[in-house]
Amino acid sequence: MSFLQAHGWEIGRLTFEHLWLTVSAMLLAAGIGLPLGILLTRRHGLAKPVIGFANVVQTVPSLALFGLLLPVPWLGENAARLYGIDIAERTKKLSPAVPKEEASPAFA
């Protein structure tokens, strides 16, 4: 209880700052995403390159985290295995015509 009395204003200020950043990011994302989504439903030719670009941009944070985890002795080895399993699972989902044995022979 004494911690809350000593640091109450700081906790409140940081909570408000966190909420402000979260709401700002959500409004920015909605301001870009909603009009872009409406545009892509009306112009089908633009959809493929825009979605491809979005997929590449979404991959960057996970690759950065993967790179940070590799040097950690126990986590790095398991992260590499999990990342490999994730890629194999995505391969199976993206190409349903390919039999599971061919898509990831290591996991068959």
Your description of this structure?
The protein has 108 residues and is mainly α. It has 2 domains: 1-42; 44-108, no CATH class. Helices cover 86% and strands 0% of the residues. It has 4 helices and no strands. The protein is flat, with a radius of gyration of 22 Å. The termini are far apart. The model has no long low-confidence stretch (mean pLDDT 79).
Q: Low-confidence parts lasting 5 or more residues at pLDDT below 50?
A: none
The number of distinct structural domains comes to: 2
The percentage of residues in β strands lies in: under 5%
Q: Would you tell me the overall average pLDDT?
A: 79
- The structural class is mainly alpha
The end-to-end span amounts to 56 Å
Shape: flat
- What is the tally of beta strands? 0
Helix content: over 70%
Produce the secondary structure layout:
Layout: H1 2-42, H2 44-69, H3 73-94, H4 100-103
Helix pairs in contact: 1-2
